[in-house]
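User: Hi! I'm working on a homework problem where we have to compare a predicted structure to a textbook description. Could you give me the structure for the chain below?
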Amino acid sequence: MEKILSIKPSAAILKSIKLSPQYKMIALKGVVAFPDMPVTCDIGKESSKRAIKEALETGEQIFLTTQKNLSVISPTINDISLVGTICDIRQAIKSGADVIKLLAHGSKRAIIKRIIEEMPYFLVEVEEAQVFNVDTVVTKALFVNAKERFLQYASIDNKISGDVLAFINSIENANMFIDSVAALVIKHEKKQLEILEEFDTENRLKKLINFLIEETEVAKINKKINFNIRTNMDKAQKDYYLREQMKAISAELGDEEDEYAVLEQKLISLKMPKEAKEKSLKELSRVKKMPVAAPENAIIRNYLDVIVELPWNKKTKDNKNLVKARQILDEDHAGLKDVKERIIEHLAVMQLTDKISGQIICFVGPPGVGKTSVAKSIARALGRNFVKMALGGVKDESELRGHRKTYVGAMPGRIIYNMKLAGSGNPVFLIDEIDKMASDHKGDPASAMLEILDPEQNQIFRDNFLEVPYDLSDVMFIATANNMQEIPRPLLDRMEVIELSSYTSNEKMDIAKNYLLLKESKKHGLHKGQIIITDEAMQKIIDSYTYEAGVRNLERQIAKICRKVAVKLVSEEKEKRNKIKYEINVSNLYEYLGAVKLIRSIRRKKDEVGLVTALSYSSVGGDILTIETNTTSGDGKILLTGSLGEVMKESASAALSAVKSLASDFNIDNKDFKEKDIHIHVPEGAVKKEGPSAGAALATAILSSFTGREVDANLAMTGEITIRGNVLAIGGVKEKIYAAKRAGVEKVLVPEQNREDVNELSKEVTDNMQIIFVNNLKEVAMHALKG
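Assistant: Happy to help. Predicted structure tokens:
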């Protein structure tokens, strides 16, 4: 609700009023902001901090006024001056736990016209106002007098520097001079407010002259007092003080000199580029001459520490034995044949060229399929150090490139920080979740990654904190992602994508028995063979307690079994523990894992009209999806339910158009499309469904409803549909066919364009499956519809 103020400025002021914009207002305690002058203050009030933060984000100016009654915690309009200054925010730095140090610069004087909002902070409408009586004869005379008074004051008070004195003395504008002197010389905010709130230039000059006379007299008295104190100081006490001070300085200098000598020796011994060495030695020379308490001292010391700790000339020796490398990869991972072959090829090229090939490897696949662990195995196979950098949620370019030393709390970016952690100049550097980067007004981190991953540019990578080139060309970068579509195209072009598809049931069984069980047993203090899980029990864990593309949840279930066994084991006598073995089978699995967590999808039991089994693929693997359609009397509307995404809704519309275009081929009367409504529903309404690959199934379900022909229950299908009835290629072929097999479906319709993808599948996926390739809706109907 707006609060209207009753403000009646004089007629002269009203003449100078301009437009009335809205500003966030902050009432300062003990500080008065003047036009064309900097203002620094500490802000502790939450509403004021919020106003500053929002103004910074939007690039707005802010209105600063002064609180008259300093004892009031939450001031109202009666407690503040109605005249203030519109200011530009130059900097807002966090100072302490709950305080922001604000640095602003005055722009224009203004009067509050009305308060628009009081919460969460004051939002006011102001009227800009200029002073008058600027160029009269009296004004000119007073201006000359004011300058003389100021020079008199400056000659007594030595706190004003020569540069500031020369600047103020050169000001030709009377009001700018008044504001500058009032801000610098006058100590009391009430007197400053008197000058700010006065709009008549003659009156402003008179007040300033009076205040300067007062300040000059005070300065004379202070100077006399200080002189008397210095002259009356006891000589013996003075000598004692100086001697003790000299001792402390000498002792401090001695320690610092030793430390700087060690640091200098380290810098000289490092084999780094000439530019980096010159820069670091120059900074060392600067910090030697700098007081320890100087703010910049800590920043330069931190800079030099980072320089010394970086592995400029340290490199690990690569393992060039391909047999050993293959053995390590096989030890760490089951399956992943294509991935291992590609890595061995990569290592072979490295041996022949004695350097890393220009291509960056990017592992793309669902969560839990082993992308990160494969990268660790590569490091182990090569004999290199391993570092990992997660990019999930990173949206500030400075997190990668670092902050310039001019900022408070400046530090190197993540690249240089991780190189320091690696301890060698040629580690395996994992960039995890490269598809999860974001961007905002602070910059685009993807653009910084272009330089980091480009072999032609990363030889001279410049971190903003280091300010010198650092060579990343010997680093083996490996990226991981869940969704290739989310990676920016220029970045994707610099990488060679290796896809890690989801594991089959047999692969999961192998991983669980040969890797996960041994790993979790050791982690829980159990020796090898102390837990025996039968194949039937393990298969039930995979099918009924987990649903995923990878093996993370499977590992958690095995860990849960290990914890239950550990509880039983500690209740036994210590001497007998190593001899006891526990067998987990189907009959006692409930005791360890509780009730079954998942209901497995199974095929429909009978052929029905309007019901089609589609195949879906998500980050957790493949699954079957039932699509239901029903026609009722109406006027040709289409109703879509079941939490369908935009792409899937468009696919349903395309499917209906395809059926309409082929209506004569299936003996469908065109009147049916106008006189009947069709309802398409995909069960499990709480689960979001998206993508175009159910198009063929949607068209088949619609066709079945309009023709009354039943759909084969022992058949599932996948494929995108066009409005002309053509069936196009889709992704996730392996996962979809394997999902159909697990559900007991024996026939699968797949787009002809995916034939090569099917040919690459293992026998475990395709055995006992009839895979039929189709080109269009007619071929789909021929295999799917009965009668």
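For your comparison, note the following. The two ends are 72 Å apart (CA to CA). The first helix runs from residue 11 to 15. Good luck with the assignment!
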